[in-house]
Amino acid sequence: MLSVQDLTVSVITGKTPLDITRNVSFELNKGEILGVVGESGCGKSMTALAIMGLLPKTTIAVRSGRVLLDDQEITHLEPHQRVDAGLSGISMIFQEPMTSLNPVMQIGDQIIEALLVHDRGNMRAPAARAKKLLDLVHIPDAAMQLKAYPHELSGGMRQRVMIAIALACNPQVLIADEPTTALDVTIQAEILSLLKELCEELSMAVLFITHNLGVVAQLADRVSVMYAGQIVETASVEVLFEHPVHPYTHGLFSCLPDPTKRSEPLQPIPGQAPLITEITDGCAFAPRCKFKTSACLSGSIDWTGISNGHKTRCHHPLKEQK
């Protein structure tokens, strides 16, 4: 349903572009949830904005690669061009609903605006359709909430409104960019449950961006781990959690508290993630990796297949260390 092929997004500055993401590739199938996980600044959100066509074109652009929706290329189409061409089947839920919703517009008007933009041929009863969307995301007393302003709703309710707006164009693909970050644990669980329910009910594909491995375990079918602008490991949730093979992925799991090992200290990943100006040929994780060799410091790092659907960009996957 969604195919991203060798996507490189760059900052256009001076003579030499600086790559924010490098050769990002993944496939997303109907009814599937793909989790993209990695620390802040690794390029997760920039990949999502490139897919949506929302990059600030004067400073950041797709330098190479393609984005295909149902086998039709949309890489360089502006959002309004996608709507005109009938290729607006991708929606996005942004990270902070309070900054995404217009504070001076009623909730109903904001949903209706999305409906009218994406379905100009059907202008009948937009308020009734907006109410159905609020019902779909389980907002109680939906008719009354249509008249509410964003500040009158809780964080969880605002996030549900954002999901309702995202569903207004009947998307084939839903991108969720850390939609539970600002929510407490109880509301977070409700939003995750809602997304999974909608994915199954509407047969959508969901690209879920997060830095929280616990959220990935609850929600995703497959996982892609991102580091310094590049996907370094991808596998099913079960396989990745049982046997991470890239040293960075293994390091992420080592940072998680283990209730069975309370007396043992956490094992943080040494060093810091590189700035985009510091990334050179070779493995970007090599300066922080205890398994690095001279081969890791130059040249391209190709994919190594571990098992069916499980692969990593590493010369020395941990499977070989055992």
Q: What is the share of helical residues?
A: 25-40%
What gyration radius follows from the Cα positions, in whole Å? Answer: 21 Å
CATH superfamily of the domain at 2-220: P-loop containing nucleotide triphosphate hydrolases
Total strands: the figure is 12
Which of globular, elongated, flat, extended, rod-shaped describes the shape?
A: globular
CATH topology of the domain at 2-220: Rossmann fold
Backbone structural class: alpha/beta
The major pleated sheet works out as:
8 strands, mixed
% residues in beta strands: 15-25%
Order of helices and strands: EEEHEEHEHHHHHEHEHEEHHEE
CATH class of the domain at 2-220: Alpha Beta
Provide mean pLDDT, rounded: 89
Lateral strand order in the biggest sheet: 6-7-8-3-9-10-12-11
Low-confidence stretches: none
CATH architecture of the domain at 2-220: 3-Layer(aba) Sandwich
Q: Alpha-carbon distance between the termini?
A: 38 Å
Count of DSSP H/I helices: 11
Written overview of the protein:
The protein has about 325 residues and is an alpha/beta fold. The chain has a domain at about 1-220: 3-Layer(aba) Sandwich (Rossmann fold), CATH 3.40.50. About 30% of the residues lie in helices and about 25% in strands. It contains eleven helices and twelve strands. The chain has an eight-stranded mixed β-sheet, with helices on both faces. It has a four-stranded antiparallel β-sheet with strand order 2-1-4-5, with helices on one face. A hairpin with a 6-residue loop joins strand 1 and strand 2 (about 20-30). The longest helix is centred in the middle third of the chain and has 18 residues, at about 185-200. It is globular. The two termini are about 40 Å apart. The mean pLDDT is about 90.
